[in-house]
Amino acid sequence: MANQNEAIVQELLQSLPERDREVLIRFYLQEQSQEVICREMGLTDTQYRLLKSRAKARLAELGRRRVSPN
Predict the structure, then answer these.
(1) Is the pLDDT of residue 69 over 70?
(2) pTM given for the model
(3) What is the pLDDT of residues 28-58, one digit of tens each?
């Protein structure tokens, strides 16, 4: 079941724009700090917070649609 859930999350992540996907992967899966992500991606703190927040919301919406496509 864990492998199936992981596959679903990977599929949903691939549906996101590249920049959104990169921020979420780097922060949540690779456990990089906000400071590192901002520096390496050329983001301000505000840009980072907005990007991460919106990316999480998009991912959540994609997940809800997958569970209940109606």
Answers:
(1) no
(2) 0.85
(3) 999 999 999 999 999 999 999 999 999 999 9
Higher pLDDT, 67 or 14: 14
Contacts of 55 (CB under 8 A, 6+ apart): 16, 20, 21, 23, 24
Residue reference for tokens 């997940």: 63
- If one counts every other C-beta atom within 10 angstroms of the C-beta of residue 27, the result is 18
| 3-class secondary structure, 13 | helix
What radius of gyration do the chain's Cα atoms show? 13
C-alpha distance from residue 64 to each of 13, 17, 18, 52, 68 (Å): 14, 18, 20, 18, 6
